[in-house]
Design a protein that fits this description.
Strand order of the largest sheet: 1-2-3-4-5-6-7
Largest sheet: 7 strands, antiparallel
Distance between the termini: 26 Å
Number of domains: 1
Number of strands: 7
Shape: globular
Structural class: alpha+beta
Strand content: 25-35%
């Protein structure tokens, strides 16, 4: 049963939300797999980093092999600190939760780089207002998009966990990169990047960003 906490949606829209949430999961699994392979194939990579990424990737694969259920989609809760950093008209992000038989749960947060659809200033008719709106849109779109996933094998905060931080960098240095992992409470700093010349970059970009864009349109911002 899908919970769409914080907003209401007709059945048809709920079905579309679930469909895009499932596609998002496929994209994240593919991205994490690619970032892991890059490190595994790097002879210079530290063993600790290689082992942590391999463990995280294998753990995440549970949600690729076990017919996960989308259990919740809601506007991302935004801290006071984050609110102070947000640009005018920026979407606050979305949280999606999945579960599989056996009790494992996965939470995905994404935010940054996305504009709130149909905001009032998008309807500006004055040429100066339109120019201001266009500038704000460029400012938002130039930001990285953060995609973080948090997996609990037992479905609670006390059980074995894996937490991962990913981001999409737009512009001339377009790439996906992984900055850190938290495995069993231990932080592992990771440097793994998939650039636009990388293997299947365009395919992976489409599989991750298309669901993000559409879910941003379907799920309201909390601010």
């Amino acid at each position: 049963m899908l919970e769409n906490e914080g907003f209401s949606a007709e059945d048809e829209i709920r079905e579309e939300i679930v469909s895009w949430a499932q596609k998002l999961l496929v994209g994240i699994v593919n991205l994490q797999d690619s970032l892991t392979l890059i490190v595994e194939n790097n002879d210079a990579a530290e063993e600790e980093v290689r082992n942590a990424l391999t463990h995280a990737n294998e753990t995440l694969s549970i949600f690729n092999d076990s017919y996960p259920e989308v259990v919740a989609v809601r506007p991302r809760r935004i801290s006071i600190k984050d609110r102070g950093r947000m640009l005018q008209g920026q979407h606050g992000g979305v949280t999606v939760e999945y579960s599989v038989k056996g009790g494992a749960k996965l939470k995905v947060n994404f935010y940054g780089g996305m504009r709130i659809p149909a905001t009032s200033d998008m309807k500006d008719t004055d040429i100066y207002q339109r120019a201001s709106h266009a500038a704000r849109t460029r400012d938002v779109a130039s930001q990285p998009t953060n995609v973080n996933w948090h997996l609990s094998l037992l479905g609670d905060e006390d059980g074995p966990r894996v937490d991962a931080w990913l981001e999409y960098i737009p512009g001339s240095k377009e790439s996906f990169r992984q900055s850190a992992l938290l495995v069993g409470g231990e932080r592992v700093d990771v440097i793994s990047s998939l650039g636009k010349e990388g293997y299947k970059f365009d395919e992976i970009k489409e599989s991750v960003l298309s669901p993000i864009v559409r879910l941003t349109e379907l799920v309201p911002s909390s601010v």
